Amino acid sequence: NAGVTQTPKFRVLKTGQSMTLLCAQDMNHEYMYWYRQDPGMGLRLIHYSVGEGTTAKGEVPDGYNVSRLKKQNFLLGLESAAPSQTSVYFCAIKTPIAYEQYFGPGTRLTVT
Amino acid sequence: AQTVTQSQPEMSVQEAETVTLSCTYDTSESDYYLFWYKQPPSRQMILVIRQEAYKQQNATENRFSVNFQKAAKSFSLKISDSQLGDAAMYFCAYFTSGTYKYIFGTGTRLKVLA
User: In the structure, what pLDDT confidence band is assigned to residue B97 with cuts at 50, 70 and 90?
Assistant: First the structure.
């Protein structure tokens, strides 16, 4: 899937802990996205980036921060994790060809 | 605001039969793209097929085809000769270059019966 990787694949946090999810691409795509997937709710956009040094809010940005210091990497941070942030997180890139989107393998995060 | 609706939470099909998954969307844009994604138990999101709104011809990829009705804002996915490996969640998605955002439906779980 266009070389999109996510680190880590699984993580368990306690309420109030912080963590950073890393998304890396081995291509040169400008657009990168972070989604969360919850049962019965499909994929919801958290934040996205249209290029190095830029970020923008999506549908559900509260409780998350992001950074795109390097074009290849898009980081998603949780400053103070809450049980409501238990979810599967997906990173994706958008290709310039017909706007196809390709996803990383996902990170399953559990907050207890 | 754009919305995408998948009204069938779950569908079943016999192996080798044909099944159609429904998707409707709401938009005031004239230029947009529509996609179907497959998510098997491995959790990986896989692009199945795409449709450009400006194209009248329905997209086809092997056993997968779409029925795109622009005026009705309908975008259904037909899977022919269903195989056990087709069992997965299927998501319909909408994209417009005006916002650079994708909007996903809530998904349809497809079961394939042997």
Answer: confident
